[in-house]
Write a structure and sequence with these properties.
Blueprint lengths: L2 H7 L1 H41 L38 H5 L14 H20 L3 H23 L4 H14 L8 H26 L6 H14 L4 H22 L11 H23 L1
């Protein structure tokens, strides 16, 4: 019996395996969350520098920096992180949240992202079982976790994540895995136009921009995965949670009413909830 046959025959073992896999992916997502905005900024600065340069000028040289180079290192002492110190969650616990070399504190968010990704992965595996739907759900969940934290940190939703997510949703629904293909296409179009309309209506009324174009693309991607019928649930949940958190931040801290809040994290969280419990929530709402 092959390893895949063993996983298919044992739902519990399959969920445990996916959980461990999710922890490992969460470790990589920490790199994506930290480095992708920096890569975007470096590319933007290089493009700006080329605007004032002569037409035949070479792009300015810059250090190689991507998702794999350079190796992860302590921001305080610069010591590279060894493989045995990079085991998801476990290494952070064994090191007591500090660098092995200099004792500099390591943010608790690193194991939190790993654990969150693992739990989301296990939940998707438990819900869909050993199927192609789990494979797609994991891809959907991994990208949404990265977008959640990137937007929370930088107010950015990179096209390099949102657009492939949209196309992947349409591809998975060619076989009607989560919804029919017509529903997925309408969901993508309606998701984009819905927030696009809100953006322009708010701008015409107030003269200000209420959200970014990345939010349009993210909701379009969620619509491509889950179909147009999921959009009211996603909008309802994300708006309610966003309003509650925004009011709480104003009342409990010095976050002023005029300061912007990222909307992408609430869309991402609502998309994940709808992926697993969307049908139950819809039945409850319409009932």
């Amino acid at each position: 019996m092959s390893p895949l046959d063993v996983l298919a025959a044992s739902p519990t073992l399959f969920v445990v395996y996916v959980f461990v896999f999710g922890l490992a992916v969460g470790s990589f997502l920490n790199v994506v969350i930290h480095r992708l905005p920096k890569m975007m900024e470096a590319e933007f600065r290089q493009e700006c520098a080329m605007l004032d340069a002569p037409e035949d000028a070479e792009p300015p040289a810059r250090p190689r920096y991507n998702l794999s180079v350079p190796r992860s290192a302590c921001p305080s002492c610069g010591a590279q992180i060894a493989a045995h110190d990079n085991i998801p969650v476990l290494s952070w616990l064994l090191l007591r949240g500090k660098c092995r070399h200099c004792g500099h504190p390591i943010s608790v968010r690193y194991p939190a992202v790993e654990l969150t990704t693992g739990l989301i992965s296990a939940g998707i595996a438990l819900h869909f079982g050993y199927s192609l739907a789990t494979l797609g759900g994991l891809l959907f969940g991994f990208v949404l976790v990265a977008l959640f934290f990137i937007d929370a940190d930088t107010f950015l939703l990179p096209d390099s994540l949102t657009l492939p997510l949209l196309w992947a949703g349409l591809l998975f629904n060619l076989r009607g895995i989560y919804t029919s293909l017509p529903s997925a296409v309408i969901g993508a179009v309606a998701g984009y136009l819905l927030l696009w309309s809100v953006y322009w209506l708010f701008k015409l009324v107030t003269g200000k921009e209420g959200m970014g174009y990345g939010d349009f693309k993210l909701l379009a991607a969620i619509g491509a995965w889950l179909g147009w019928a999921s959009l009211p649930i996603v909008i309802l949940m994300s708006s309610m949670v966003g309003a509650i958190i925004g009011i709480a931040m104003v009342l409990l801290s010095r976050h002023g009413w005029g300061k912007p809040l990222p909307f992408g994290p609430y869309l991402a969280a609502a998309g994940l909830v709808t992926l697993i419990w969307g049908q139950d929530i819809a039945a409850l709402i319409w009932h």
